[in-house]
Amino acid sequence: AGAETVKRAVQLDVASRFQEALVCYQEGIDLLLQVVKATADEAKKKCYRQKISEYMTRAEDIKKHIEKEKQETFFSDGKYHKQIRIGENATGFGYEKLFHEYLTEVVSEVWVEDPYIRQVHQASSYLLYNFLRFCEMLIKGPCKVKTIHLLTSYDEGSGRSQQMTALEEIKQSLSNYGVTLNIDFSSSVHDREIRFNNGWMIKIGRGLDYFKKPQGRFSIGYCDFDLRPCQETTVDVFHTKHTKKM
Protein backbone atom coordinates (compact mmCIF):
# COMPACT_ATOMS: atom_id res chain seq x y z
CA ALA A 1 0.00 0.00 0.00
CA GLY A 2 2.88 2.37 0.83
CA ALA A 3 4.57 1.70 -2.50
CA GLU A 4 1.34 2.30 -4.41
CA THR A 5 0.69 5.53 -2.54
CA VAL A 6 4.13 7.01 -3.24
CA LYS A 7 3.85 5.84 -6.85
CA ARG A 8 0.65 7.87 -7.08
CA ALA A 9 2.43 10.78 -5.40
CA VAL A 10 5.15 10.72 -8.07
CA GLN A 11 2.53 10.69 -10.84
CA LEU A 12 0.75 13.68 -9.31
CA ASP A 13 4.10 15.41 -8.80
CA VAL A 14 5.00 14.99 -12.47
CA ALA A 15 1.57 16.33 -13.43
CA SER A 16 2.24 19.43 -11.27
CA ARG A 17 -0.70 18.59 -9.01
CA PHE A 18 1.45 19.48 -6.03
CA GLN A 19 -1.17 19.77 -3.27
CA GLU A 20 -2.48 16.27 -4.00
CA ALA A 21 1.06 14.94 -4.45
CA LEU A 22 2.05 16.26 -1.02
CA VAL A 23 -0.85 14.45 0.65
CA CYS A 24 0.09 11.19 -1.10
CA TYR A 25 3.77 11.57 -0.22
CA GLN A 26 2.89 12.09 3.44
CA GLU A 27 0.52 9.11 3.52
CA GLY A 28 3.02 6.93 1.66
CA ILE A 29 5.85 7.86 4.00
CA ASP A 30 3.73 6.94 7.03
CA LEU A 31 2.89 3.56 5.49
CA LEU A 32 6.52 2.85 4.60
CA LEU A 33 7.64 3.73 8.13
CA GLN A 34 5.24 1.07 9.39
CA VAL A 35 6.82 -1.42 6.97
CA VAL A 36 10.27 -0.58 8.30
CA LYS A 37 9.16 -1.28 11.85
CA ALA A 38 7.76 -4.67 10.82
CA THR A 39 10.79 -5.70 8.72
CA ALA A 40 13.55 -7.78 10.29
CA ASP A 41 15.83 -7.83 7.21
CA GLU A 42 18.42 -5.07 7.75
CA ALA A 43 19.23 -4.78 4.04
CA LYS A 44 15.56 -4.15 3.24
CA LYS A 45 15.31 -1.71 6.12
CA LYS A 46 18.25 0.27 4.73
CA CYS A 47 16.65 0.37 1.29
CA TYR A 48 13.31 1.51 2.69
CA ARG A 49 14.95 4.22 4.81
CA GLN A 50 16.81 5.56 1.80
CA LYS A 51 13.61 5.78 -0.21
CA ILE A 52 11.74 7.34 2.71
CA SER A 53 14.48 9.97 3.02
CA GLU A 54 14.16 10.81 -0.68
CA TYR A 55 10.38 11.09 -0.44
CA MET A 56 10.60 13.25 2.69
CA THR A 57 13.02 15.61 0.95
CA ARG A 58 10.71 15.89 -2.04
CA ALA A 59 7.68 16.44 0.19
CA GLU A 60 9.47 19.29 1.96
CA ASP A 61 10.40 20.84 -1.40
CA ILE A 62 6.77 20.64 -2.53
CA LYS A 63 5.57 22.16 0.76
CA LYS A 64 7.93 25.13 0.25
CA HIS A 65 6.80 25.48 -3.35
CA ILE A 66 3.13 25.52 -2.35
CA GLU A 67 3.77 28.14 0.33
CA LYS A 68 5.74 30.29 -2.11
CA GLU A 69 3.00 29.97 -4.72
CA LYS A 70 0.41 30.89 -2.12
CA GLN A 71 2.38 33.99 -1.14
CA GLU A 72 2.76 35.03 -4.78
CA THR A 73 -0.95 34.48 -5.42
CA PHE A 74 -1.94 36.74 -2.53
CA PHE A 75 0.80 39.29 -2.37
CA SER A 76 2.32 39.90 -5.82
CA ASP A 77 1.61 43.28 -7.42
CA GLY A 78 0.12 44.53 -4.18
CA LYS A 79 -2.59 41.89 -4.02
CA TYR A 80 -3.77 41.05 -0.53
CA HIS A 81 -7.25 39.66 -1.10
CA LYS A 82 -8.70 36.39 -2.34
CA GLN A 83 -12.40 35.87 -2.87
CA ILE A 84 -14.29 32.58 -3.15
CA ARG A 85 -17.88 32.52 -4.36
CA ILE A 86 -20.01 29.63 -3.17
CA GLY A 87 -23.01 29.12 -5.42
CA GLU A 88 -26.53 28.12 -4.43
CA ASN A 89 -26.70 24.35 -3.84
CA ALA A 90 -22.94 23.99 -4.43
CA THR A 91 -21.21 21.10 -2.65
CA GLY A 92 -17.60 20.40 -1.76
CA PHE A 93 -17.21 23.33 0.65
CA GLY A 94 -16.86 21.57 4.01
CA TYR A 95 -14.81 23.37 6.63
CA GLU A 96 -11.69 21.26 5.94
CA LYS A 97 -11.74 22.20 2.25
CA LEU A 98 -12.35 25.87 2.97
CA PHE A 99 -9.81 26.41 5.74
CA HIS A 100 -7.09 23.75 5.28
CA GLU A 101 -4.57 25.88 3.38
CA TYR A 102 -4.57 28.54 6.12
CA LEU A 103 -4.36 26.15 9.08
CA THR A 104 -0.60 25.75 9.08
CA GLU A 105 1.27 23.96 11.86
CA VAL A 106 2.04 27.25 13.65
CA VAL A 107 -1.64 28.03 14.29
CA SER A 108 -2.26 27.79 18.03
CA GLU A 109 -4.93 30.44 18.60
CA VAL A 110 -8.21 31.09 16.78
CA TRP A 111 -10.79 33.88 17.04
CA VAL A 112 -14.40 33.34 15.91
CA GLU A 113 -16.81 36.27 15.75
CA ASP A 114 -20.37 35.38 14.83
CA PRO A 115 -23.52 36.84 16.41
CA TYR A 116 -25.61 33.72 15.85
CA ILE A 117 -23.88 30.84 17.65
CA ARG A 118 -27.21 29.93 19.19
CA GLN A 119 -29.63 27.08 19.71
CA VAL A 120 -30.86 24.77 16.98
CA HIS A 121 -34.49 25.85 17.38
CA GLN A 122 -33.87 28.77 15.03
CA ALA A 123 -35.33 28.37 11.56
CA SER A 124 -32.78 26.49 9.41
CA SER A 125 -29.97 27.45 11.78
CA TYR A 126 -27.62 24.78 13.09
CA LEU A 127 -24.87 27.11 14.21
CA LEU A 128 -24.11 25.47 17.53
CA TYR A 129 -23.57 22.17 15.72
CA ASN A 130 -21.63 23.98 12.99
CA PHE A 131 -19.38 25.61 15.57
CA LEU A 132 -18.79 22.21 17.16
CA ARG A 133 -17.91 20.79 13.73
CA PHE A 134 -15.48 23.69 13.20
CA CYS A 135 -13.82 22.92 16.55
CA GLU A 136 -13.51 19.25 15.58
CA MET A 137 -11.70 20.29 12.40
CA LEU A 138 -9.22 22.35 14.43
CA ILE A 139 -8.48 19.43 16.75
CA LYS A 140 -7.74 17.11 13.83
CA GLY A 141 -4.90 19.40 12.74
CA PRO A 142 -2.34 19.79 11.26
CA CYS A 143 -2.45 22.92 13.40
CA LYS A 144 -1.86 22.71 17.16
CA VAL A 145 -4.67 24.88 18.47
CA LYS A 146 -4.54 25.60 22.19
CA THR A 147 -7.03 28.45 22.52
CA ILE A 148 -10.29 29.32 20.75
CA HIS A 149 -11.95 32.69 21.38
CA LEU A 150 -15.66 32.92 20.60
CA LEU A 151 -17.51 36.23 20.48
CA THR A 152 -21.24 35.89 19.90
CA SER A 153 -24.58 37.24 21.17
CA TYR A 154 -26.99 35.82 23.71
CA ASP A 155 -29.93 33.77 22.51
CA GLU A 156 -33.27 35.37 23.20
CA GLY A 157 -35.81 34.30 25.80
CA SER A 158 -35.85 30.71 26.98
CA GLY A 159 -33.21 29.71 24.46
CA ARG A 160 -30.46 31.39 26.47
CA SER A 161 -30.14 28.66 29.08
CA GLN A 162 -29.98 26.00 26.35
CA GLN A 163 -27.36 28.05 24.51
CA MET A 164 -25.24 28.35 27.65
CA THR A 165 -25.57 24.64 28.43
CA ALA A 166 -24.49 23.66 24.91
CA LEU A 167 -21.53 26.05 24.86
CA GLU A 168 -20.41 24.87 28.29
CA GLU A 169 -20.54 21.27 27.05
CA ILE A 170 -18.41 22.18 24.02
CA LYS A 171 -16.00 24.01 26.32
CA GLN A 172 -15.64 21.01 28.62
CA SER A 173 -15.21 18.62 25.71
CA LEU A 174 -12.48 20.80 24.19
CA SER A 175 -10.64 20.87 27.51
CA ASN A 176 -10.31 17.09 27.29
CA TYR A 177 -8.14 17.72 24.22
CA GLY A 178 -6.06 20.42 25.88
CA VAL A 179 -7.94 23.26 24.15
CA THR A 180 -9.29 26.27 26.05
CA LEU A 181 -12.52 27.87 24.82
CA ASN A 182 -13.02 31.48 25.91
CA ILE A 183 -16.59 32.71 25.38
CA ASP A 184 -17.66 36.36 25.34
CA PHE A 185 -21.05 37.85 24.55
CA SER A 186 -21.90 41.20 22.96
CA SER A 187 -25.21 42.67 21.88
CA SER A 188 -23.44 44.79 19.27
CA VAL A 189 -21.36 42.13 17.51
CA HIS A 190 -22.34 41.95 13.84
CA ASP A 191 -19.18 40.97 11.93
CA ARG A 192 -18.69 37.36 10.94
CA GLU A 193 -15.03 36.55 10.73
CA ILE A 194 -12.47 33.94 11.70
CA ARG A 195 -8.85 34.81 12.47
CA PHE A 196 -5.80 32.62 12.98
CA ASN A 197 -2.66 33.72 14.78
CA ASN A 198 -0.57 33.10 11.65
CA GLY A 199 -2.15 36.25 10.20
CA TRP A 200 -4.93 34.82 8.03
CA MET A 201 -8.43 36.27 8.35
CA ILE A 202 -11.51 34.76 6.69
CA LYS A 203 -14.80 36.61 6.36
CA ILE A 204 -17.81 34.53 5.30
CA GLY A 205 -21.00 36.37 4.36
CA ARG A 206 -23.14 33.87 6.25
CA GLY A 207 -20.58 33.01 8.93
CA LEU A 208 -20.32 29.31 9.70
CA ASP A 209 -23.97 28.83 8.76
CA TYR A 210 -23.64 28.67 4.97
CA PHE A 211 -24.96 25.10 4.72
CA LYS A 212 -28.55 24.30 3.89
CA LYS A 213 -30.72 22.39 6.32
CA PRO A 214 -30.36 18.65 5.58
CA GLN A 215 -33.40 16.98 4.05
CA GLY A 216 -33.44 14.43 6.85
CA ARG A 217 -31.32 12.89 9.60
CA PHE A 218 -30.47 9.98 7.31
CA SER A 219 -29.92 11.90 4.08
CA ILE A 220 -26.56 12.22 2.32
CA GLY A 221 -24.78 15.32 3.56
CA TYR A 222 -26.18 15.18 7.08
CA CYS A 223 -22.81 14.07 8.54
CA ASP A 224 -20.35 14.91 5.75
CA PHE A 225 -20.37 18.67 5.14
CA ASP A 226 -18.54 18.25 1.83
CA LEU A 227 -21.73 16.63 0.53
CA ARG A 228 -24.09 19.18 2.10
CA PRO A 229 -25.60 21.71 -0.37
CA CYS A 230 -24.67 25.30 0.45
CA GLN A 231 -26.49 28.59 0.44
CA GLU A 232 -25.02 31.21 -1.85
CA THR A 233 -22.37 33.27 -0.09
CA THR A 234 -18.99 34.91 -0.52
CA VAL A 235 -15.77 34.10 1.32
CA ASP A 236 -13.10 36.82 1.55
CA VAL A 237 -9.59 35.94 2.67
CA PHE A 238 -7.08 38.53 3.88
CA HIS A 239 -3.72 38.56 5.60
CA THR A 240 -2.79 41.05 8.31
CA LYS A 241 0.59 41.52 6.62
CA HIS A 242 -1.17 43.48 3.90
CA THR A 243 -4.44 44.65 5.39
CA LYS A 244 -2.40 47.03 7.55
CA LYS A 245 -1.28 48.78 4.35
CA MET A 246 -4.82 49.56 3.23
Task: Explain the layout of strands and helices.
Layout: H1 2-14, H2 18-38, H3 42-75, E1 81-86, H4 95-99, E2 109-113, H5 127-140, E3 147-152, H6 159-175, E4 180-185, E5 193-196, E6 200-204, E7 233-239, H7 240-243
Parallel strand pairs: 2-3, 3-4
Antiparallel strand pairs: 1-7, 2-5, 5-6, 6-7
Helix pairs in contact: 1-2, 2-3
Describe the structure.
The protein has helices at residues 2-14, 18-38, 42-75, 95-99, 127-140, 159-175, 240-243; strands spanning 81-86, 109-113, 147-152, 180-185, 193-196, 200-204, 233-239. Helix 1 runs antiparallel to helix 2 and helix 2 packs antiparallel against helix 3. The chain has two domains: 1-77, Phosphotransferase system, lactose/cellobiose-type IIA subunit (Methane Monooxygenase Hydroxylase, Chain G, domain 1, Up-down Bundle), CATH 1.20.58.80; 81-239, Endonuclease, Chain A (2-Layer Sandwich), CATH 3.30.870.30. Residues 121-125 have low confidence and may be disordered. The chain is built from seven helices and seven strands, in the order αααβαβαβαββββα. Strands 1-7-6-5-2-3-4 form a seven-stranded mixed β-sheet. With 246 residues, the protein is α/β, with parallel strands linked by helices.
